[in-house]
Structure formats: structure tokens, C-alpha cells
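Q: Here's a chain of 134 amino acids. Please give me its 3D structure as C-alpha cells.
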Amino acid sequence: MMETAKRFASAFAPSAQATGAKPDTAFAEISTDPSYLPELRGYLDSLLQARERIRSAADLDDWARAEAMPSDEEITRLRQLIRRAEHDLSQLGEADRHQITQAVEAVRATRHAVHLGMPAIRPPMPATLQEGLA
């Protein structure tokens, strides 16, 4: 049980969505966290859709196509990370998988309810309003 908890401890890190970043496919400790699987799958889908749109665009210059095209390496790494997370989950016993599923649901609900991004700074009050308050 402790090994399972250690393996999935990163579930409590801020999500890529909360920080405004793309899911980082270079760091397995974040991206194999099962609570990030929906974001990883969504990111993979968006890369595949972008690749198809770019391939079907007839009026793009070669340099623009090359710059906009998601790399095959990134798509491959993302697929590997998703498979690794799914494999890790499939290796768990039923009780551990149930506990992980409950923890993932709690973490995802918290991420949805709690904004972990940068605090917003209000724009300055217009001069006409400031005069009215004085």
C-alpha cells in the first residue's frame, strides 16, 4: 500500500491547466500521475487534430508547415506516457485501483474547484470613478 501511495504521490501537484502550461511530457513523475490522464489524452487529441489540419492545408508555405507541425517525437512520447500510466494502473490490485480512483476523483474535483493560478491584479480605477469617490 505504501509503495502505491509513493508512486502516485505527485497527484497533489498543481495541474498543467492550473499553471497555464501544457502537460509536460518530459517529466514522468507528473505525466504518469493518473489524475492527469484526461489532460494528457486531450493534449494528444489536440496534437493529432492540429497535425491533420496542417497536413490538409494546401496554402501553407513549407517553412510555416514545418514550424506549426507537432513533432512526431512529442506525439510518440505522449502516447508512451499515457500507456505507462494506464499500465501502472492495470498492475494494481482491485483494492489499490479503487483507492487510486477515489483519490484521483478527489484531486480532480479539488483542481476544478480551487484556482491555483496567479492572483489577478485589478486594473486601475478610471479617473472619473476615483473623483466620484473622493
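Q: Can you summarize the key feature?
A: Confidence is low (pLDDT under 50) at residues 4-21, 23-30.
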